[in-house]
Amino acid sequence: MKRIDWKSISRLALVMILTASGIIAYQAQAQQDDLAGRRAKRSTFMKMKLEYSKNLLEALTTENYDKIQANAKALKAMSLAAEWEVAEIPSVQEYLTYSTDFQRLCDDLSKAAERKSIDGVTLGFTQLTINCVKCHQFVRFKKD
Ligand code: HEC
Fold first, then answer.
1. 33 alpha-carbon distance from chain centroid
2. Which of 82, 130, 80 shows the shortest CA–CA distance to 105?
3. Closest atom of ligand 1 to CA, residue 99
4. Closest ligand 1 atom, residue 50 Cα
5. Nearest residue to 72 (alpha-carbon basis) of 42, 135, 115, 36
6. Which of 2, 7, 94, 101 has minimal CB crowding within 10 Å?
7. How far is the CA of 34 from the centre of ligand 1 (A)?
8. Cβ(60)–Cβ(68) under 8 Å?
9. Could you read off the pLDDT of 115-139 as tens digits, one per residue?
C-alpha cells in the first residue's frame, strides 16, 4: 500500500487556503469600491440641488422669473430621476412623502414665477428650503 504523503497534502491545503482567502479579500475590496463609487456618484447628484437652490436665491434677489422657473423645474426633474431613490432609507413611505411635498413645492414655485408674484416666489423658496432641511433631518435620523 502506498504511504500517505502528508507533506504534499498539507502543502496543497495551504495553497488552497491562500487562494480562497485571496479570492474573498478581492471580492470584499471590489464590493467596497462599488459602494464608494455609488456614494460618490450620489454625492455629485445630490449636490446639484444646492446649485439649483443657489441659482434660485440669485434669481429671487434679482427678480429674474425665467430663471426661477427654470431652476424650480430642474429641481423637480431631479426628484423624478432614479438617483433620487436611496436604497439605505428604511422608511420608503416617509421618504416618499417628503419627495411628494418637494415636487408640489417646486410646482408652486414655478407657478408663482409665471404669475410674476414676488411674494409667491419668496414664500415658495422659503417653503422649499424648509422641506430640504426636514428631509435631511429624517435621512440622518434614520441612518444613525
Ligand atoms: C426627499 C428627501 C430630500 C429632500 C427634499 C432634499 N434632499 Fe438633499 N439629500 C437627500 C438624501 C437622501 C441625501 C444623501 C444623503 C447621503 O448620501 O448620506 C441628500 C444629500 C444632499 C446634499 C449633500 C451631498 C453631499 O454628499 O455632500 C446636499 C448639498 C443636498 N442634499 C441639498 C439639498 C437641497 C438644497 C434641497 C432642497 C432644495 C434638498 N437637498 C432636498 C434627500 C433629500
1. 17
2. 130
3. 1
4. 35
5. 115
6. 2
7. 21
8. yes
9. 999 999 999 999 999 999 999 999 9
- Helix 92-114 × helix 118-143 angle, to 10°: 170
Helix (H, G, I), strand (E, B) or coil at 115: coil
Q: Domains of the chain (ranges plus CATH)?
A: 44-143 (1.20.120.10)
The x, y and z cell numbers of residue 136, run together, are: 435631511
Tell me how far the alpha carbon of residue 116 lies from the centroid of ligand 1, in angstroms.
28
Q: How far is the CA of 119 from the centre of ligand 1 (A)?
A: 26
Amino acid at 36: A
The cell numbers describing 94, all together, are 416617509
- Probe residue for ligand 1, chosen from 47, 48, 49, 99 as the CB with the greatest number of ligand atoms within 8 Å: 49
pTM (two decimals): 0.83
Q: Using one digit for the tens of pLDDT, what is the confidence trace for 6-25?
A: 888 889 889 999 999 888 88
